Amino acid sequence: MSSCSCSSIHVHQPAETKVPVAAVEALFAKPFNDLLYEAQSAHRQHFDPNKVQLSTLLSIKTGGCPEDCGYCPQSKRHPNAVADEPMLDIDAVLTAARAAKDAGASRFCMGAAWRGPKQKDLDPVLTMVREVKALGLETCCTLGMLREGQAEQLRDAGLDYYNHNLDTAPEFYGEIISTRDFEDRLDTLNKVRGAGINVCAGGIVGMGESRTQRAGLLAQLASLDPPPESVPINLLVQVEGTPLHGTDALDPIEFVRTIAVARILMPTSYVRLSAGRQQMSDAVQALCFLAGANSIFYGDKLLTTGNPEWERDQALFGKLGLTPA
Ligand code: SAM
Ligand code: DTB
Ligand code: SF4
């Protein structure tokens, strides 16, 4: 477990969260129509209900990760893991970023299969951040745990957002990952916040957690002070060879409830309907937007798995009268 090295703003939390888990469970238990009405009302107080922010992902360093996250196809500990590839060069990154911008994305998120970046890894990423930013896109990175001083280097390069997910409730965390702990995640978020970078932090549902544990994840996120500017809610993408492959699928209505509760608890945050959309019907996605989701990953690939094609999303937006934020 990391020791506390906070210099200014603390996001470390005791087991007892500022937002009590029981209060979050009470939201989950509401009649569906009441819950969606409350979520949509909260949404309309802070956002245009017909606008959705579009972020495009690119895996800049794929595979070979030493961590053992049970959901992830990039861990080298799992059978059939994706191949360990070298880091992309700057030209490949800029080509993808230009295509994302041309397709209508406003943010470009660069992900790496690392426990955390070494300085020799971070240097080329700083160049990527500078040059992607110069294209007129917002920048986001997800590189794993950050060491002292690395968040400041990313900020100085022009990084707008750092994505680092709490993934699941502290009580379930040890069942999914053994190579780091929940407190390590909070420690990196603290460094990101301390450097003045916008925080993107969410989690994954559908990993076999209980409703209380889903509530526990959202209570932790909502108790961050301030809450994350961006909250990705991922539905587990089940990949063969990963320990979580074969987990019972989460009921789609329960997924929509999770989005609605996130919207109510974090009314001014962007709530992103994240991984898992490829397997989702248009109707379930529409319910997620009604529940207050106002951001998506846009483009036909997430990091290593599929995402709806641009054309399918454009057709869905047309049907729902949604436009990019
Ligand atoms: N290696 C870094 C880390 O773990 O922080 C950054 C990349 S990692 C792939 C980013 C996030 O992707 C994870 O924290 C997890 O929330 C999400 N993720 C990974 N595999 C997933 C899957 N199969 N389904 C849904 N979300 C997934
Ligand atoms: C997030 O919350 N979800 C994204 C992004 N942040 C990095 C990643 C989803 C990964 C899904 C599995 C894959 O494509 O490898
Ligand atoms: Fe590595 Fe990140 Fe995948 Fe975990 S989620 S195995 S840290 S790439």
Could you explain the architecture of this structure?
The chain has 325 residues and is an alpha/beta fold. It has helices at residues 21-28, 32-46, 90-103, 119-134, 150-157, 170-176, 182-194, 211-223, 252-265, 282-290, 310-320, and strands at 51-61, 107-112, 138-142, 161-163, 198-200, 203-205, 230-235, 270-273, 295-297, 323-324. Strands 1, 2, 3, 4, 5, 6, 7, 8, 9 and 10 form a ten-stranded parallel beta sheet that branches. Helix 9 links the parallel strand 7 and strand 8 (270-273). Helix 2 (32-46) crosses helix 9, helix 3 packs parallel to helix 4 (119-134) and helix 8 runs parallel beside helix 9. The longest helix has 16 residues, at 119-134. The termini are far apart. The relative contact order is 0.18. Residues 1-14 have low confidence and may be disordered. The structure holds S-adenosylmethionine, 6-(5-methyl-2-OXO-imidazolidin-4-yl)-hexanoic acid and iron/sulfur cluster. Residues 57, 73, 111, 142, 163, 165, 202, 232, 234, 237, 274-275, 302-305 line the site of 6-(5-methyl-2-OXO-imidazolidin-4-yl)-hexanoic acid.
Give the SSE layout.
Elements: H1 21-28, H2 32-46, E1 51-61, H3 90-103, E2 107-112, H4 119-134, E3 138-142, H5 150-157, E4 161-163, H6 170-176, H7 182-194, E5 198-200, E6 203-205, H8 211-223, E7 230-235, H9 252-265, E8 270-273, H10 282-290, E9 295-297, H11 310-320, E10 323-324
Parallel strand pairs: 1-2, 1-9, 1-10, 2-3, 3-4, 4-5, 6-7, 7-8, 8-9
Helix pairs in contact: 1-8, 2-9, 3-4, 4-5, 8-9, 9-10
Bound molecules: S-adenosylmethionine, 6-(5-methyl-2-OXO-imidazolidin-4-yl)-hexanoic acid and iron/sulfur cluster.
Residues 71-72, 111, 113-114, 142, 144, 164-165, 167, 204, 234, 236-237, 239, 275, 303 line the site of S-adenosylmethionine.
